[in-house]
């Protein structure tokens, strides 16, 4: 009985210490998890298109169940919000993406708003798992294309774009699928504005058949490359 009494006392003491913040309680969040989110800023609130502007055919973009849904005629949705005054240079960008079968889309970076057409400025990172276009998800379109399928339709995956100086890395679910450094005097045939520089992000509505969903769109601004 005496041993049990001492055990009860020790348990009560441990609870009091934990309550005082000196020890972590079971199930408490690991500080490393919180640290891993440090510096990330959300660009899409999951409720509205605040901070974003569509050009032609704005009805292509909608919000449902906390997701940004892209489904309709050709259109591009540009980030015009307050984060970095929508002008990014070095960054780590992540979005969770889900494609429907035979769908095509893209994520542009270092671009700028234009009222119609395919964006002239910046790079396009492909979103396409089973569309007839052979250039698949993760590629830098018409620059460093990817022809292997790294993600599946109707399954959420994370598409990540990291830019430091002229170095661009694209990851799908943490796996690097593109590692590209833009050469000096680089020119892309038919895409003279496809340059690393600075600018905003844009999501692509490719065609009325394609349907692509985005959520948890966020960015971390990185220091200038040394």
Total domains, how many?
1
CATH superfamily: Exo-inulinase, domain 1
CATH architecture: Sandwich
Which topology does CATH recognise? Answer: Jelly Rolls
Percentage of residues in DSSP E strands = 25-35%
Description:
Strands 1, 3, 4, 6, 9, 10, 11 and 13 form an eight-stranded antiparallel beta sheet that branches. The protein has a five-stranded antiparallel beta sheet with strand order 2-5-12-7-8, with no helix packed on it. It has helices at 2-19, 31-36, and strands spanning 40-42, 52-54, 61-64, 67-71, 75-79, 91-99, 105-111, 123-127, 157-164, 167-172, 175-181, 200-205, 211-221. By secondary structure, it is mainly β. The radius of gyration is 22 Å and the shape is globular. It has two helices and 13 strands. It has a single domain, classed as Exo-inulinase, domain 1 (Jelly Rolls, Sandwich), CATH 2.60.120.560. The termini are far apart. Helix content is 11%, strand content 35%. β9 (157-164) and β10 (167-172) form a beta hairpin.
């Amino acid at each position: 009985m005496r041993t049990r009494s001492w055990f009860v006392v020790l348990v009560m003491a441990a609870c009091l210490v934990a309550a005082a913040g000196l020890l972590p309680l079971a199930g408490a969040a690991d500080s490393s998890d919180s640290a891993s989110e440090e510096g990330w800023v959300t660009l899409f609130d999951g409720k509205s298109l605040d901070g974003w502007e569509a050009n032609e055919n704005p009805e292509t973009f909608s919000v449902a169940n906390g997701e940004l849904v892209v489904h309709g005629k050709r259109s591009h949705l540009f980030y015009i919000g307050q984060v970095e005054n929508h002008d990014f240079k070095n960054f780590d960008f992540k979005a969770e993406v889900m494609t429907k079968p035979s769908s095509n889309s893209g994520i542009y970076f270092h671009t700028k708003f234009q009222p119609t057409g395919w964006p002239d400025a910046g790079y396009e990172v492909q979103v396409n798992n089973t569309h007839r276009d052979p250039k698949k998800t993760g590629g830098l379109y018409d620059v460093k294309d990817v022809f292997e399928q790294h993600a599946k339709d109707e399954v959420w995956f994370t598409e990540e774009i990291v830019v430091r100086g002229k170095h661009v890395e694209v990851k799908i679910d943490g796996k690097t699928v593109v590692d590209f450094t833009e050469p000096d005097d680089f020119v892309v045939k038919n895409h003279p504005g496809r340059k690393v520089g600075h600018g905003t992000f844009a999501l692509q509505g490719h065609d009325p058949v394609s349907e692509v969903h985005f959520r948890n769109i966020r960015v971390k601004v990185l220091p200038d490359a040394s």
